Amino acid sequence: MLDAALRKAAAVWITSPGHEPKLVHAHWRDEALWVITGGTEQHVPGLSDKAQVTVTVRSPSTHSHLIDAKATAHLTEPDDETTQALKTARLNTEPEWDAVYRLEFGA
């Protein structure tokens, strides 16, 4: 269910320890959730390399709660293909970001 929900989600809520949830644009790719922060994108307090976060996915059509999942954030430098996918996923804007995180979900 997590995989299916994340494939359809254009945005998710991320909760870092000690911080309120933040809505961010996200892109499911290579079995991980990619999140861009800073610049023209949402800043997520507490999101850092190796941070343990909770990702909340809501239904794109009804906005009802679908699932919460624990993930580990990895600060990364995306390859060209992933960078283009992140830009394309934003549709109406040309995003500028300070950091890219790959959120991986544990077993």
Describe the structure.
This protein has 107 residues and is of the alpha+beta class. The protein has one domain (2-105): Electron Transport, Fmn-binding Protein, Chain A (Pnp Oxidase, Chain A). It contains two helices and six strands; from the N terminus they run αβββββαβ. It has helices at 2-8, 80-89, and strands at 11-15, 22-29, 32-37, 52-58, 65-76, 99-105. Strands 1-2-3-6-5-4 form a six-stranded antiparallel barrel. The model has no long low-confidence stretch (mean pLDDT 88).
Key words describing this protein structure:
2 helices, 107 residues, alpha+beta, six-stranded antiparallel beta barrel, globular, Pyridoxamine 5'-phosphate oxidase putative domain-containing protein, Pnp Oxidase, Chain A
List the domain count as a whole number. Answer: 1
How many DSSP-defined strands?
6
Report the CATH superfamily.
Electron Transport, Fmn-binding Protein, Chain A
Q: Which secondary-structure class do the elements indicate? A: alpha+beta
Content of β-strand: 35-45%
Mass-distribution shape? globular
Mean pLDDT: 88
Biggest sheet strand line-up = 1-2-3-6-5-4
Second CATH tier, the architecture: Roll
The helix tally amounts to 2
- Classify the helix fraction into a percent range: 10-25%
Top CATH class: Mainly Beta
N-to-C terminal Cα separation, in Å? 14 Å
Largest sheet: 6 strands, antiparallel, barrel
CATH topology: Pnp Oxidase, Chain A
Q: Provide the succession of SSEs.
A: HEEEEEHE
Unreliable spans are none
What's the Cα radius of gyration?
Answer: 13 Å
Protein name: Pyridoxamine 5'-phosphate oxidase putative domain-containing protein
Organism: Lentzea guizhouensis
